């Protein structure tokens, strides 16, 4: 990033200042201002990138709400991309909860009301038959990763229609800030097929199609046309499916995973990050994952994804498939998922076990005696004091994962989990919680968030030029993430590394993922002699380029 840019490729004057990929603002040197027609268009003093970061963070701290901080950062991204990423890379623990969960949820809910400038691409059901031409409007052909949503299941907030665009934008921001994927190769996409959200349909500032959702064959044909067009225009592009409703999420993954380069973050990414947390919890307890019994509260994409990863890892540790499955139990809104239940949808049939029907979580805990409960229900407060007390009665170090996002949907708070177990539990949440004082100790919550997984996954896939994304890549990512939790992290109560290490974590995961690609001959490239160095060399670093 610190090479000279040919003068012939540059706009000048106001046009240069309005180009976020090239703009340096007050950091343009005197010589650059002379050569590029910038004198008089900027204040006279030349600032360093560090000066600019300080100015941004000073204003960031002055904002009165997290949503205002979100608007500030997105506006910065729209005018000076390098400065934006420098701010995020230098301040991940402050900025990532704003650009990603939990604040991105509120930003999506209010998308039409805070809209400033378009970013990414909207493909609507009215574009059927011409999606390739619409995608061709994107200004470059070097797109290598797409994050796409149809907005039907945004975090735990439900159907937000076209407002869901905040999620692909946020995810790709993390690809760059955490995983070092060059922003020039990233494309956020929202497929707008309408919404069932009545409040949005009645909102005159809603920017999506004001109609009920397209479903069935028409929906499937639209998605197929999009995936075909994306691969035609951007050959070998990695497609990350994000926040689709459960049935569509499973169908898209199963239909396309062996045909194009793709994965589903809600199924596989969530599975990997939760598996990493469970591996670390077993390390804290001095045992192995195969010794645990896990009860999942929730039975959608996340639960299936985590369950699959846990069962795979238990088998790696020597259990048979049947033995591993009998250590993973699932509950939905109707209670424990058992084989005696009628009319289970396909994805839940694989979760059914032989047991008497149990309706309530405390009763299920008392009957099954799990060592861990994993909340992926989107139901705030679902982990009641009674349920947590039941878990703590038969576990010295009960494992409690309240993974639903955003914070308002968490099954319990960190304070509740630690308070109701006397500080004995091993706790993780999907969104950040403040530290909790328990006696003379201060415990810091582990954030079991997919941001630990997908940026490194994407980087490893792109550097290796893998032809497919496999579940083995995700289990390798989970083991790598768990191995990077330090003794200091564990002593502080964390079962994930601090977020200020996220770029190193992503680089290590990328190496593990690329190794799977090279070992499995999933790429036509030869393995570099020093794979770690190749990963580091490929990572985008936000620094200004010289223009003269």
Any overview of this molecule?
The protein is α/β, with parallel strands linked by helices and 548 residues long. The chain folds into three domains: 7-97, Hemocyanin, N-terminal domain (Up-down Bundle); 103-260, Rossmann fold (3-Layer(aba) Sandwich), CATH 3.40.50.10380; 268-451, Rossmann fold (3-Layer(aba) Sandwich), CATH 3.40.50. 45% of the residues lie in helices and 10% in strands. The protein has helices at 13-17, 30-36, 49-62, 66-79, 81-90, 92-99, 103-109, 111-114, 131-135, 166-179, 198-201, 216-233, 246-256, 265-285, 301-316, 321-325, 346-349, 361-368, 385-393, 414-420, 454-464, 471-483, 487-491, 502-519, 531-538; strands at residues 121-124, 145-149, 186-192, 238-241, 262-264, 294-297, 328-332, 335-336, 372-375, 399-402, 426-429, 436-438, 441-443, 446-447. A seven-stranded mixed beta sheet has the order 8-7-6-9-10-11-14, with helices on both faces. Helix 3 (49-62) crosses helix 5 (81-90), helix 5 (81-90) crosses helix 6 and helix 24 (502-519) crosses helix 25. The radius of gyration is 24 Å and the shape is globular. The relative contact order is 0.11.
Please provide the count of β strands: 14
Looking at this structure, what is the CATH superfamily of the largest domain? NAD(P)-binding Rossmann-like Domain
Q: Give me the Rg, rounded.
A: 24 Å
Poorly predicted runs of 5 or more residues: none
* Biggest pleated-sheet summary: 7 strands, mixed
Per the principal axes of the C-alpha atoms, what is the gross shape?
globular
Helix count?
25
In the CATH scheme, what's the topology name of the largest domain?
A: Rossmann fold
Give the helix proportion (percent range).
Answer: 40-55%
CATH class of the largest domain: Alpha Beta
Overall tally of domains: 3
Class inferred from helices and paired strands: alpha/beta
Mean pLDDT: 94
